[in-house]
């Protein structure tokens, strides 16, 4: 009891700052992985930590030695499995800084044109892949296509995805109310559990949102359905109002 009282009395400002810094780092780490596959895996990791300390508490030496032996390989496997999330988190930190809460805002003008274009393409059975650049730059993917730097509008969007256009097969990259490039090549997702019904456009849309914080809109050439992807997750079969609400929400625009 005396040791506990002395410890409490010796607790000072430096200790409070130390605890606050650690709590802030943990909070920022949880924010980075929220909504990703790593979010679900976090609970599995916590369960393993609890299990490890339980083996120490109960003096289960065989289980303890087994866990200590496997731990380095477990850490390595986590790095391999979640390399996309790690790259995205590091890119976000490098872009805005871990102590920054600066949010990129896209102007609302042009979103209605995107929705109208997607609706038109959907009715005509024309495929499309549209990428919205956010905080993480997409220069590598923009350089793989044809630079345009044109004002975003309905007519140009529909024209770019016309089957007779040489740029219709690739992705169109947007930023705010500008069309940065067309005919861009995107990385395909390597998720082995993805439905085989999803074609190349959907896999590319999922792939780019696994690597970056981009938001994508996909129009299926086969079914005409409109889909969206963000953080590696896909939402299928959106109508025009749902698509507009999605874009406003994830492009952080005030309604």
Can you offer a commentary on this structure?
The protein contains ten helices and seven strands. It is of the alpha+beta class and 255 residues long. The chain has two domains: 2-96, no CATH class; 111-250, YojJ-like (1, CATH 3.40.1700.10. A seven-stranded mixed β-sheet has the order 2-4-3-1-5-6-7, sandwiched between helices. It is elongated and about 70 Å long. The termini are far apart. The relative contact order is 0.11.
Q: Compute the number of structural domains.
A: 2
Please state the average pLDDT score: 80
Task: State the fourth-level CATH superfamily of the largest domain.
Answer: DNA integrity scanning protein, DisA, N-terminal domain
Span between N and C termini? 58 Å
Order of helices and strands: HHHHHHEHEHEEHEEEH
Percent of residues in helices comes to 40-55%
* Strands, count: 7
Question: Any descriptors?
Answer:
single chain; 255 residues; alpha+beta; YojJ-like (1; 2 domains; seven-stranded mixed sheet; 7 strands
Concise structural overview:
It is built from 10 helices and 7 strands. It has helices spanning 2-9, 13-33, 37-57, 61-81, 83-96, 111-124, 139-142, 154-160, 200-211, 240-250; strands at residues 128-132, 146-151, 171-175, 178-184, 215-219, 226-230, 233-238. A hairpin with a 2-residue loop joins strand 3 (171-175) and strand 4 (178-184).
Topology, element by element:
Layout: H1 2-9, H2 13-33, H3 37-57, H4 61-81, H5 83-96, H6 111-124, E1 128-132, H7 139-142, E2 146-151, H8 154-160, E3 171-175, E4 178-184, H9 200-211, E5 215-219, E6 226-230, E7 233-238, H10 240-250
Parallel strand pairs: 1-3
Antiparallel strand pairs: 1-5, 2-4, 3-4, 5-6, 6-7
């Amino acid at each position: 009891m005396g040791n506990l009282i002395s410890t409490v009395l010796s607790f000072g400002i430096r200790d409070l700052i130390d605890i606050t810094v650690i709590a802030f780092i943990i909070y920022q780490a949880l924010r980075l992985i929220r909504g990703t596959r790593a979010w679900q895996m976090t609970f599995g990791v916590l369960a393993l930590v609890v299990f490890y300390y339980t083996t120490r508490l109960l003096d289960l030496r065989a289980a303890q030695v087994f866990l200590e032996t496997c731990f380095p390989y477990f850490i390595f496997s986590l790095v391999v499995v979640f390399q996309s999330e790690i790259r995205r988190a590091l890119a976000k930190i490098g872009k805005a800084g871990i102590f920054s809460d600066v949010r990129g805002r896209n102007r609302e003008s042009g979103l209605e044109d995107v929705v109208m274009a997607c609706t038109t393409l959907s009715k005509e059975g024309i495929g499309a892949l549209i990428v919205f650049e956010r905080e993480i730059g997409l220069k590598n993917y923009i350089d793989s296509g044809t630079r345009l730097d044109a004002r975003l509008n309905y007519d140009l969007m529909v024209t770019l995805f016309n089957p007779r256009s040489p740029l219709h097969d690739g992705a169109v990259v947007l930023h705010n109310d500008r069309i940065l490039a067309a005919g861009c090549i995107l990385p395909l997702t390597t998720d082995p559990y993805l439905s085989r019904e999803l074609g190349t456009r959907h896999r590319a849309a999922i792939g780019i949102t696994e690597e970056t914080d981009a938001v994508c809109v996909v129009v299926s050439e086969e079914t005409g359905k409109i889909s969206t992807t963000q953080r590696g997750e896909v939402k299928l079969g959106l109508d025009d109002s749902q698509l507009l609400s999605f874009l406003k929400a994830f492009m952080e625009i005030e309604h």
